[in-house]
Design a protein that fits this description.
The chain is α/β, with parallel strands linked by helices and 963 residues long. It has 36 helices and 26 strands. Among the domains are: 205 residues, no CATH class; 146 residues; 39 residues, no CATH class; 139 residues, Nucleotidyltransferase, domain 5, CATH 3.30.420; 92 residues, no CATH class; 35 residues. The strands form 6 sheets. Strands 1, 2, 3, 4, 5, 6 and 7 form a 7-stranded mixed beta sheet that branches. The protein has a 5-stranded mixed beta sheet with strand order 11-10-9-12-13, with helices on both faces. Strand 5, helix 5 and strand 6 form a beta-alpha-beta unit. The longest helix is centred in the middle third of the chain and has 28 residues. The radius of gyration is 40 Å and the shape is elongated.
């Protein structure tokens, strides 16, 4: 078996390529591969010529015979030398004094012939008696940057020479790049890895079957690209998924999954654990496969692409091995009004010129925002800034560069397009964009740029500029689509022509305990339906079991039996409109309606079914009907007490609606339909929307507000619930993101003190602020626990703890009164002087000091105001109330449902903060909690006074009533 350097080079790139070369397969052609081969041959000729010029003609040889005894050679330089090991060279090489290096030179024990065609070998004469001459293999690489494969190929040459000479060749050279730089490589450290590769090659070439076909990043440079790609598509091979590693493919194959289609059936939508919500979403190969199978875009969570300003779509072309960027493409704006700029550099020296032009163009753009795709442009901005200068700090251009948006980071792991890769060409092609020249890739632009440098072809230059401009245009389309797929742009998504091809993973039904059965066989589907428990009990078992038949009969009779009416009431007429007080027109016929309600006593509960007779009136001015008894819940046959009872359990006690419904049906003998509790919740939210807004308005114009936020899962997407509270009111507000801009709008008129945690978005509010000292105390405590031996940090924390303890003691004794708290301002100033004058050395202490100094005006604000707490417990307590409700719902909310729950929860918590019973408030039909609280207090005082005097409550007149 002959293993040559040509095959070894192919094996380093791809096992399939090595196999095809070994059997003499001829590639179908690859323009870039042919260019690389031609350039490599040209570079080798030039490098060999340079070496020959440095060595006298008598001391160099070209293409020496393969049978020549290298040990007896007298030349200093040999070009195009073929080194071949004899068949017996597989055993370990032995010298008179073996060492660690020579012990490991042996082969694997298989019979294999190693052969290498060395571009050049340098012979270093012996330095003394008993010391043999040294042979140094030399390779030529035209690239400026070397790879590990280049070093391994040189080490293979050294291995072959070692076995031919019988001693270790520990050094090699690589001449590379435009400057023909020489790199010395210690090949002895690479021989072990080379031997392992040779053993794998031997096993591959001796096998009668070809290796598994695997597509990899080298395919773009391979002459067999078209052949392998065609076979992979026919097989639906897993390697079509570009991001899947060999280890992941092997794991899937061990489970019997060999194709992309098979993989697509393994995706299961799952809720993310709370501890992972702040971490980046994991990439799901199975979801990518599902998107490809269904030919639809699949979205995980809420991808957010924010474009605030004028978009500047950026695409740079360069030569990676030189770090030379010769073309900068900029597309400013959107649509037909967009302006394209193409900045071209003829030479490396012109790179600074086009960079300055690039910055100059950005300066003319109002609030520029750079948008690119992938990390190549990130490196471009960094390298060009380091080499040619950065824009002035705090300028719009500097901010645009610092905050440039990589669209790929938004797409990755959140938006799965039905393409095998996340490349711009594939995704933009799916979205309908077409390049004027099909099949052009980044590798071909490298080839064309080098060709242009050799010939200065105007046509090639124009092709490169056109290709770059079209990349910018494709990026614009992709950015627009990504923006539309975000949760904040539902309207854009609905108007797009690709909206029907979008699937949110949270809408994919999750499996039940036994899995969701689906089958392409219609008969199996019918059999599965007939196997359901309810169907079997009601249709099958009822025919064979007398007991089940009696149970089913009793159930039907019970459901059909009408509930008894306790009494009939005639509702008094009220012919004046409650809105405009105009006399209305009475309907001729008497309306008869049965009210299903409950009576709530002090310690009991009973069902109440009453038939009401009443007349309906019509107001011609307000155009509304009135006269319906107020005991009825709007648009329902159920009473207000009953609905209040249900909402009290759902909102106040956080009991699931299904359980509340089942409990009421069992205990009260009612037959509530499925979903009716949810309908009550929707109507109640509509009824109390005015109350919710009044709470927000009162908070916005008050003297104190606590603010906090928490996450909520809305059909798999992450949204946020903000809570605003004072000492008496609580308001919950839903938001798609954690951005505080809407909070600014909500609290635009607020001039009081804001209490919050250390979320940086709050720093932009222009009002006195008090940061939660409990949060700060916990953070400092964690720092001390993490660094128990940092005395400087401990000194700062202890100083803060001492003054905080004294403040809390004052609060416990006198309350939140500035008259008593202001005395601590001196100790605060003393604390800041101590840490300001100290010269800390530890990094933790320096950061702690900077944190105190940054928040100096926001840590002790409560000392200067009456009634301002030093912590954010009010908001955190309100957050706990929502968290309890959130745990019950468990992510099955929609945005509309969240808002409805938050309205009712705001009313519930405000009642608790006001000392009002939530159930009583719901039963009253009132909308003003403050007015209801005052009336309740008045009735409570009258009741207490009557009880003290031994008189009935009605005997004491109401001081607010008219005589």
């Amino acid at each position: 078996m002959r293993i040559t350097s040509h095959l070894f080079d192919a094996f380093l790139k791809c096992a399939t390529k090595c196999h095809l070369r070994s059997i003499g397969e001829i590639g179908s052609g690859n323009e870039y591969a042919e260019w690389v081969r031609a350039r490599d041959e040209s570079y080798q000729r030039e490098a060999a010529r340079r070496l020959q010029e440095a060595v006298p003609e008598t001391e160099r040889v070209v293409a020496p015979a393969a049978t020549e005894n290298l040990k007896a050679a007298q030349w200093r330089l040999a070009l195009d030398l073929v080194a071949q090991t004899p068949d017996s060279a597989d055993g370990p090489i032995r010298e008179s004094r073996p060492n660690e290096e020579t012990r490991g030179l042996g082969g694997s024990g298989t019979e294999q012939l190693l052969e290498s065609r060395l571009p050049a070998v340098e012979r270093v004469p012996s330095e003394g008696r008993g010391k043999p001459a040294q042979f140094v293999p030399i390779r030529f690489v035209f690239r400026n940057k070397l790879t590990k494969d280049d070093r391994l190929l040189l080490a293979f040459d050294a291995l072959v020479l070692s076995q031919v000479l019988g001693r270790v060749v520990s050094l090699g050279k690589i001449i590379h790049g435009d400057d023909h730089a020489t790199l010395k490589v210690k090949t002895s450290t690479l021989l072990g890895e080379v031997r392992k590769r040779v053993e794998k090659m031997a096993a591959l070439l001796s096998s009668p079957s070809p290796p598994d076909l695997v597509l990899n990043p080298h395919c773009g440079e391979c002459e067999f690209q078209a052949r392998c790609r065609k076979m992979a598509v026919e097989k639906d091979d897993l390697s079509l998924l570009a991001r899947m590693s060999a280890k992941e493919r092997q794991e899937l194959r061990s489970k019997g999954i060999f194709t992309v289609t098979q993989l697509s059936y393994t995706f299961r939508p799952r809720r993310r654990p709370k501890k992972l919500r702040d971490k980046r979403e994991k990439y799901h190969h199975s979801l990518k496969a599902l998107a490809i199978r269904e030919k639809k875009i699949h979205i995980v969570g809420s991808p957010e692409l924010k474009i605030e300003g004028t978009p500047v779509y950026l695409d740079a072309e360069g030569l990676p091995d030189r770090d030379f960027y010769y073309l900068i493409g900029m597309r400013i704006g959107n649509g037909e009004s967009a302006v394209q700029h193409s900045l071209w550099a003829d030479t490396v020296e012109d790179g600074g010129k086009i960079w300055r032009e690039f910055l100059g163009i950005l300066e003319t753009v109002e609030k520029p925002m750079l948008i690119h795709y992938g990390s190549y442009e990130t490196g471009f901005l960094k390298v060009m800034g380091e080499h040619h200068g950065r824009p002035p700090e705090n300028s719009d251009v500097a901010k645009a560069i610092e905050t440039s948006v990589n669209v790929l980071s938004v797409v990755f792991a959140q938006i799965y397009f039905p393409t095998f890769t996340n490349g711009l060409k594939d995704i933009a092609g799916f979205l309908g964009f077409k390049w004027s020249e099909a099949g052009v890739s980044g590798l071909q632009t490298i080839m064309r740029r080098h060709t242009w440098e050799d010939a200065a072809s105007r046509e090639l230059r124009q092709k490169l500029i056109t290709y770059n401009a079209e990349d910018c245009q494709a990026l614009e389309i992709l950015a627009y689509v990504t923006l539309g797929l975000g949760s904040a742009h539902d309207a854009n998504r609905q108007n797009a022509n690709w909206a029907a091809n979008v699937v949110h993973t949270e809408s994919i039904p999750r499996e039940t305990l036994f899995g969701r059965f689906s089958s392409p066989i219609t008969e199996f589907e019918q059999v599965n339906k007939a196997a359901r428990w309810d169907y079997l009990r009601d249709k099958v078992y009822v025919r064979s079991s007398k007991r089940i038949r009696r149970i089913s009969l009793r159930k039907r009779l019970r459901n059909q039996r009408p509930l008894p009416i306790a009494r009939i009431l005639k509702h008094p007429e009220c012919d004046h409109c409650p809105t405009c007080n105009k006399k209305g027109y009475r309907h001729y016929y008497v309306t008869k309606r049965v009210l299903y309600d409950i009576h709530i006593g002090r310690f009991n509960l009973r069902r109440r079914i009453v038939e009401y007779h009443y007349h309906v009136f019509w107001c011609s001015v307000c155009r509304m009907r009135f006269g319906i008894p107020k005991e009825f819940w709007p648009e329902s046959k159920f009473g207000r007490n009953f609905v209040a009872y249900l909402l009290y359990h759902v909102i106040g006690l956080c009991i699931p609606m299904a359980i509340v419904r089942e409990s009421v049906n069992r205990l009260l003998g009612l037959d509530l339909a499925y979903g009716i509790v949810g309908q009550f919740k929707v109507r109640a939210a509509r009824f109390y929307a005015e109350t919710h807004q009044a709470i927000i308005n009162r908070l916005a114009t008050g003297k104190l507000v606590h603010i906090d936020e928490t996450r909520v899962s809305v059909k798999g997407k992450t949204a946020f619930v903000w809570v605003f509270t004072s000492l008496h009111e609580v308001a919950y507000v839903y938001a798609d993101t954690r951005e505080a801009q809407f909070v600014k709008t909500l609290l635009a008129e607020f001039r009081g003190v804001m209490i919050s945690d250390f979320y940086t978005a709050y720093d932009s509010f222009e009002c006195p602020q008090q940061k939660c000292l409990i949060h700060l105390m916990r953070d400092l405590n964690d720092e001390v626990l993490d660094r128990p031996f940092d005395e400087e940090l401990k000194r700062i924390v202890i100083g803060f703890a001492e003054i905080l303890k004294l403040m809390v003691e004052t609060v416990d004794r006198y309350g939140l009164k500035k008259h008593f708290l202001r005395r601590h301002l001196k100790s605060v100033d003393r604390f800041y002087r101590q840490i300001g004058n100290a010269d800390f050395q530890s990094e933790a202490a320096i950061k702690c000091k900077e944190r105190f100094e940054k928040n100096r005006d926001k840590l002790f604000t409560f000392l200067e105001y009456d009634g301002v707490p030093w912590n954010n417990n009010n908001a955190e307590h309100a957050i706990k109330a929502f968290a309890a409700l959130r745990d019950v719902v468990q992510g099955s909310w929609t945005p509309k449902a969240v808002r409805e729950h938050l309205i009712l929860l705001s009313v519930c918590q405000t009642c608790k903060y006001m000392g009002v019973d939530f159930l009583d408030f719901l039963r009253s039909g009132e909308k003003d909690i403050h007015a209801f609280a005052e009336s309740r207090r008045g009735r409570r005082r009258r009741t207490q006074a009557s009880q003290a005097d031994g008189l009935p409550a009605d005997a004491i007149p109401d001081p607010d009533s008219k005589p």
